[in-house]
Amino acid sequence: MSEPGEKRPSTIHEVARLAGVSHTTVSRYLQDKDSLKPQTRVKVEFAVKTLDYRPNLVARSMRTRRTNRLAIVLATGPHFPGRQLAAASETAHQAGYQIEIVSVEGGPKARAARIEDLARSGQVDGILALSSIDIGAASIDLKTKSLGIPIVRSESYDERLHVLGELAGAAEIGEIIEHLSSLGHRRFLHVAGDQSFASGRNRKRVYLETIERLGLESVGVYDGDWTGQSGVDAIASLPDGCGVTAVVAACDLAAVGVIRGARARGWSVPGDLSVFGWDDDEYGRYALPSLSTVAVDRESQGRDGIHRLLAEILGKPAPEPSVRSVNRLIHRESTAPPPLSADSTGADGRSEVQ
Questions:
Q1: What is the pLDDT of residues 144-201, one digit of tens each?
Q2: Closest Cα to residue 15, out of 45, 56, 57?
Q3: How far apart are CA 189 and CA 276, in angstroms?
Q4: Percent of the chain surpassing pLDDT 90
Q5: What is the fold of 62-161+301-323?
Q6: DSSP code of 163?
Q7: Distance CA 165, CA 157 (A)
Q8: Helices (H) and strands (E) in the chain, counts
Q9: Pairwise CA distance, residues 25 & 101, whole Å
Q10: Among 119, 201, 108, 189, which Cα is nearest to 155's?
Q11: Quick check: helix, strand or coil at residue 186?
């Protein structure tokens, strides 16, 4: 019983009355809100939030013989995918599930063994693997609903939680250079990311290919390590009169370092030097100047993985994968046309190019 003065939890029938729908519609919303029409989904979502409705997971578990828990298995590493996991957790919670994040030390075989243990334990209704797993290392077939538990493989990260697949794509580097070229820039510098990352290698490769394809000039590639200091050092290493007017950095932190290094040399951004980053980290929006960058929709990866897993659990067809890129360009104050003297002077506006 509730204590005197304690607010009684709202029921699914009260949510249904406020939304003007049946309680089965509310139940459908909690399990798979995308199955509802947008107008209905908005009404139910408003009612759920207004009444602060929380599904009774214990009652549901007894009724359905499910645990209402999902597991996300990934490698242990320094680059924790917080944004993706937060979106995955929110999506699961909206469907009435709790999330258990299992970080496993070791390689694909260790993760396969841990997934097998989870599948046999009966503690979760489904498992999403974000890091690579060795199917041959497990005694169960991880590609099927072994032991009645769906196992979905996303594998967005490697052994050190470096991004893989679409998250490591770099096509937008080409779009950046094409845009800067359309503004009049002809001489570029790339501050690369750590080359042990697929994303760092891909961005460097696309940079070099695009420069050659468009007939532009590159003063070089500075092999950085994702830090702001690498951006500072890249600019400090440029000789006077190098003529560079645009820098494409592999991440926002390096791009902010580039801006810092440019100011140390008396160059203005974007007056003398345009700078483009990657990641759309929050600090870049409030930098002076605000940073042009590539926004990475890591959240969609988390949501898509959970939607696929929920479809397996509910026996529904797998949702169609998103057709749009997870990356998109954001143009801000750090990019502009090059200085009028760029054809005959260096980035400092004084030294003549030899």
A1: 555 568 888 876 666 665 666 677 788 999 999 999 999 999 999 999 999 988 899 9
A2: 45
A3: 11
A4: 42
A5: Rossmann fold (3.40.50)
A6: B
A7: 8
A8: 12, 10
A9: 30
A10: 108
A11: coil
The overall longest dimension of the chain from CA atoms, in Å, is 85
pLDDT top residue among 275 and 326: 275
Contact 284, 290 (CB under 8 A): yes
The residues, ordered by sequence, that sit 6+ positions from 196 with a Cβ below 8 Å of its Cβ are 162
Cα gap 299→322, rounded to integer Å: 12
| C-alpha pair distances (Å), 29 with each of 12, 87, 94 | 11, 17, 8
Residues of the chain within CATH 3.40.50.2300 domain(s) are: 62-161+301-323, 167-292+331-343
Q: Check pLDDT > 80 for residue 280.
A: yes
Angle CA 226–82–252, to nearest 5? 30
167-292+331-343: which CATH topology?
Rossmann fold (3.40.50)
pLDDT-derived band at 290, boundaries 50, 70, 90:
very high
Q: Is 237 helix (H, G, I), strand (E, B) or coil?
A: coil
Q: Tokens 């370092």 — which residue?
A: 257
Nearest to 305 by CA among 155, 154, 162: 154
In 3-state terms, what secondary structure has residue 339?
A: coil
Q: Where are the beta strands (DSSP E) in 82-176?
A: 98-104, 126-131, 151-157
Contact 243, 307 (CB under 8 A): no
Per residue in 10-68, pLDDT tens? Answer: 888 888 999 999 888 887 787 667 778 888 888 888 988 888 887 654 445 444 456 88
Q: Give pLDDT, residue 133.
A: 74
Rounded Cα gap, residues 245 and 251, in angstroms: 18
d(CA 331, CA 179): 10
Q: Tokens at residue 334, please?
A: 């750090």
**What digits encode the pLDDT tens for the residues 230-242?**
999 999 999 999 9
pLDDT at 325 over 80: no
Q: Is the dihedral of CA 143, 145, 146, 151 positive or negative?
A: positive
In the chain the first and final C-alpha atoms are separated, in Å, by 85
β-pairing verdict for 151-157 and 187-192: unpaired
